[in-house]
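Protocol step 6 of 9: fold each sequence in the batch and record its structure tokens directly after the sequence line. For illustration, a two-sequence batch is reproduced in full.

Sequence one:
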Amino acid sequence: KNCRPTWRKKSWPSGEKSRAGEFRFSFAGFYGTIRAEVQTSRLKVILDIGFLGHAHDERSARRGAQRVAGNLFAGLRASGTCDLSFVATSHLAGAFDFLAAQKISPVEKLQCGKFQLQRSRFARGLREKVLRSLPDRRLPVRAWRRLLSEIIRAATAGEAQLDDAMLAGADIYHTPHTPFPAAVRRHPRLKKFITLHDFIPLKTPGYFPGNTRPFMDAVLECLTPENFAFCVSEVTRADALNFSKIPPEHVFVAPLAADKNLFYPESDVEKVASVCRRLAIPPEPYFLALSAQDRHKNYPHLIRCFGQLVESGELTDTNLVIVGPNPDQNTEVVEALAKFPRARARVLVPGYVADEDLASVYSGATAFLFPSLAEGFGIPPLEAMQCGTPVIASNTTSIPEVVGDAGILLCPTDEDSWCQAMLQINRESTLRTQLRQKSLERSKLFSWERFIAETLRGYRTAIGLT
């Protein structure tokens, strides 16, 4: 049985370590030392799958952080070393349906009350109405959306009401994004992990809306000396240590990866052409950019570089394809496009692209462009590299950790350098071939198997198994 005496001490005599699923006691006296151990083979892990509920409900929400959460879920489940149960601190209805789709009984494995689930389903219906109405910018509709948003907020306020008995019986609580709920913080024996993707909102707050700061403050409150963190890169780890008092030995690096089933060199030329036709991408060479339209992604810089090359006549038959949701909501992108009227028709925005089409879109590109000003990891360049696509990317923050010498790394604000690199890679087939090979080799360093191995190592370290 899993014995958890409250009197177990935090430290042991030299050479001894506490272990998951066991208790030890020792005392010295006339009769010597007595030790007793009871072991279990599986870690009891509670995983927050609110992010996966969001991605289940909204395809456009399947961004980098959601992919990380999905691979964490799948990897822990496949490892055979964890007894998993789940909570959802957001999007409870989506999380319930996600587990059901995975052939896991949400009634047995997801901690939630019946009334909570009903409220979450009600809020989901309202959220769908809000999303459908987003293109309508009329003032009455915007006011209606605001009202619905307040109702949604009230309806989902109780999604993080967790059962103390379930928490008390677990070894690990792991959230892949959101801060710890109050109920989790109240359990001193429970080892609490949070995955840290980046600290960009704290380092460059001007790129983010005002409501980002309270979220980041809540994340920082999790980084206390008794808690643990996984970071997606060495840069993020350094930031975590700089912004908090969490001890270095409690912060682990678990590098991310790209799904090999989704991102691979697509050699079927007709399939690539078919996907491009469906996405209204003309049968001409194209540069590819893919990401959310956040300001730090630096798309205006990319459009300025491309626009200059088109206006000057340097690029005569090449397009720029920007994949991602809602580009028209980025006013800087709209303003940049307005300055280059001749290039405007050559900048193609297909919007959201389904996962199953991404390998073809990557593989068909002349090069992948990633001018981001800051990243916690940078999954899109790795996805491109795994497809054998040449990469031009920024030389800042964590991006060199990912790209290494397999791509062309440039200052993200140097327009001349970016223009020259784009021209060079567009004209020189030998360079493209060399970078394709380097990309494929470099991408082999990253895998979700390694990510899960590092995660399990962190768990074992926290509970004294290593």
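Sequence two, same batch, same settings:
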Amino acid sequence: KSTLLRLISGALSPAEGTIEIQGKPVWALSRKDAAQEVALVLPEGGRTIPFRVEALVLLGRSPYLGDLGWEGPEDRRIAREAMALAGVADLGDRFFDGLSLGERQRVLLAQGLAQEPKILLLDEPAAHLDIHHQVEIHALLERLAKDRGMTVVAVSHDLNLAAEYSDRLVLLEKGRVRADGRPEAVITEELLASVYESRVLVDRNPKSGAPRVTLLRS
């Protein structure tokens, strides 16, 4: 799943077939043009990044900077707006390496948002987040898709979060597409039992109506 995101972003080239953005092969775009179209947000992964948060988020503006590479007032405004959206506006002067894992994950999301991409790719965006921030981040991604027309593609192992906030799900099994469609068509007891080799109960969230998965004891 992570490899698929890297292929879409152009970070990797496929062995066969093509991946197109706006009708053009993604690897035919310059790095600058590709970064204005697609942002890839990877899991925090314990990386060492000796930057203050605001400076790190400002790196998301790199595709829009001139030859000198200096950020202007508009770039700083966009970066601060991205920090506010990701819930890290109060961390601007903190060093990334001194943050909790959940805070780091939200800072990396803010950096991706600062790119103002048309397509936002996320690998486990709720990793290391508590329940409050899991819901907050997924609600934000839902708003970005609906209000800004941004295409959001997220890898998730949390079936309930995926079913609750996604318009379309693609279920992969051993690197191949096993099912593709609306959440209610993909999140079924038969499919999940087959792919995960576990007994599950699938019913409906009484408030939203989205499919809800409960693991059954053996």
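Proceed to step 7 once all outputs are recorded. Observation for sequence two: Residues 131-148 form the longest helix (18 residues).
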